[in-house]
Amino acid sequence: MIRAVPYQEAPRPPMTEELAARCARAVYIITPCGRILSAGRASLCVLAVIGYRRFARLFSLPPLIWSVELGYWLVARNRKFFGRFFFPKESRSS
User: Fold this and answer.
1) Is the distance from CB of 61 to CB of 44 less than 8 angstroms?
2) Cα–Cα–Cα angle for 85, 38, 69, rounded to 5 degrees
3) How many C-beta atoms surround the C-beta of residue 44 within 10 A?
């Protein structure tokens, strides 16, 4: 099960000030066993949970994980552009 919580509202602990600062830049997942995943690895974890286990497992291996991380980095730093491109109606209203 995944429980999405805005980092500003996450319980402390497990949220720390250092983790909150990092969460402002990327998505983070804390697994039930306590592992902290971020960015592309967190996205792959979500894909595995919702049923894309083989895809997530394959793309978790080097060198594919590097392309996932690069893709995440590019999209995260250009959210405005991708928002206009993929959600043009929502972008016009704001």
Assistant:
1) no
2) 55
3) 25
